[in-house]
Each structure stands twice: as structure tokens, then as C-alpha cells.
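#data-curation
PF: Archiving a pair of folding outputs for the training set. Convention for this channel: one message per protein, sequence first, C-alpha cells after, nothing in between. First:
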Amino acid sequence: MEDTEFEKLYGAWAPRTPADAATLFVGYPGTWWIAGGWALEAFTGVSRHHEDLDPSVLRGEFSLLRRHLAGRLDIWSASSGALKPVLPNDRPDAHADEVLLEGSGQVWTRPDAAQQWEYDILLSPGTSVEWAYKRDEEIRMPMAEALWEQDGIRYLQPEIQLLYKAKGQRPKDEADFVATLPFLDERRRGWLRTALQRTLPAHSWLQHL
């Protein structure tokens, strides 16, 4: 869907950066990090166009997120093009699966209906001590190793982000792989190679890893 068509249906998004997310999450008691293209740019230093920001939290800590955003941003469950408001007083301590749309792996947030969307927050499996890949939760890594920090902001490791991008193989995903590959040492390449062999064994990136 083109940006203009998307905005006509759902409304516009405010441009946000990792620094904006860091401000939003000040005082948040759970685990959060930045994923997506911003994570790759932070690691490589190679600038790229950004359509969005991908702040991420643990799905199991969704109630912490709700309390943290209460009174500041409304939360909407997003799944397959459908949106449903998560009302502040609707089981505030419930697990995400009890209050979100089926298949919802993210929530959209905004101050109110008259303003732009602020953050599309991804909900990740795993725990505060162990990261898990949402498409195959047998692929795991200690959370302390899955994230790295720059300027007080935690980012998803580049090899993990490329694993997420591998399924789509959109032009921007291919460009991210080409830009990031020279910065990956053998350990990172080996991890990504093993993960792709398990999940996408015919993937074209394997010949470069």
C-alpha cells in the first residue's frame, strides 16, 4: 500500500527517532529496545531512509507498557489491517493475549484520535533474560547478548535484525543486507547462517555468508 493510501485509511504517522523513544521510555520498568532499520543504521553508521521506528517490548510485559503509557498515549491493537482500542480500564493487568486482537504482534499509539500516530511498538516473545525469535522460538539468545547499547539506547543485534528481514526480501531488505554484511564478523555471520539454514534453507543470502 502506498503511503498516501495508507494515510487516507489509517491516518499519518509522526516522524520519530530512537532518541524520541528513549524519552518515551524514561522510567519504564520493563525491557525495551530499538529494532528495524534504525538498529542497522546505528550499528553500521550507514544512513538510510526510515519509514518508521520499531521500538520493541516483551509481550509478557504488556501490562507494564500499558501502565507506563496510561494518560499519555492511547494503545490500539493492530493485526492484519484491523485496529482495536485497548481501553485503559479493560483488564489492565491482563496478558497481551487476553486483550489484543488475535495475531496482534504490535500496538499503535497516539495521544488521541485528532493527532498523528506516534509509535508502532512491537511485542516480542522471550523474557528479560532471554531473547526468542518470534517465528521459531527454539532460536534463542541471552538478552544481554541479543541487545547492544549506544548513547544510552539499546538496539537489536544486526544479525538478529537481518534474520527478521530475510523472510521479506523486499528491495529495502536486500539493501540493508548488502550495507550490513561488511560489518559482520565471522561470529555474527555464523549465527545468521545457522539461523537461516534452520528457517529458510534455500535463502539467497546463504551464499554470501
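PF: Second:
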Amino acid sequence: MGLTESVWGELPEERKILWKYFFRCVSIVGALFVTKTDNIYFDLLLGFFTAAFLIIVIETQRSYSRLSPNFRKKNIRIAIFLGSWGVAILGFAFFLQAAFTATITVFYSDVLPAFYRSQNELTPIVTFLVFLVAAPIACIRIFRELNFKEFIYTNPRNGLKKILIYKNPKATSFFMFAYMELFTLMICFIYSSSVAIIAKVFLDLKNFAGGNVG
């Protein structure tokens, strides 16, 4: 049985409808507070994938044993794919933001002064070329040494498998049922806002660079 199926199956139909009304109201109100990027296409795409993950997780766990094995297997695979890659993309975006900030700091503090201090014309050029090669290598090395792939992809994927495939833990009371569904909704809101905040930074940088070029 699904994570919430035993509790959901015991609820009277009236309580099921009332819970659906409540859940949708919370979803609508919560969506109003989710950060937006002001890019309608990106916001719609992000909202679509987040909603798809939420719907699949909520609905399949309510009636897991009544679904055909092939259908539920496909849905769980999609949910794990969306969840694991969603976290990986967000984690990688955070890493890129930190790496970009560190790279710019090094450029302004160590590389740029070489253009003004050195009397040899080749020194600034060589310094800049070395910087262009060393910066990406340093970022990749740090990414590997910190086992960032395991942190942002492997562990979240294994966690989703434990929950959605091995069904651990399961709801045993209505309180736990409500907590699990609302917690899933809250995680989706936090994820959407986090992705939007990071995306907005990169979009602003792109617009800033485009404005300067123009």
C-alpha cells in the first residue's frame, strides 16, 4: 500500500472532499507567496514540473495498491526523476553562483591589478590566460573533492527511492497523513522559490551583460 493509502481509504467520502478543498485552498494561497522570476515562460515551466511532481506523489500514494503495476511504476519513476534532477539542478546552480562569486573576487583582487602594475605588456595577458585556464579547473576540483554530486544527486535520489519505492515511513493516523501531504506541498513551494531566486540572479546578470553590450 501507498504511504497514505491506509488512512485515506478509511476516511468517509465527505472528509475526503473536505480535505481536497482544504488542500487546494492551501495550494492556491501558498502559490501566491512563491517567488517569481518575472519571466513568464520560465515561471510556467517551473510551475508545471513542480506541480507534476506534487500531483504524482500525492495521488499515487493515496491509491497505490489499486493502480496497475505498470502504471504506478511509470509514475514513481517520473516522480523520482523530477525530484532527484530538480534537487541536482538547484544544488548545481547554488554551486555555480558561489563559484562565480569567488572567481570574480579573484579576478578583481589578483588579475585585474596586473594590468596596471606591470610594466611588461605580456604579463597582464599571460596572467589573464592563466586565470582563464585555472579558474574552471579549480571549480571542477572543488566540486569533486566535496563529493558534490553525491550531496545534490545521489543522496536525494536514494532518499526518494526509500520513500516512494520502499514506502518508509507510512502514515498511521490522520495527523501523520495531513503532515506528510502538507509537508510535501511545503517542500514544493520552497523548491520553486529557491529555483526562482537563483534563476533571477542569472537572468539579471544576463540582462545586465546584454544591456552593457547594447
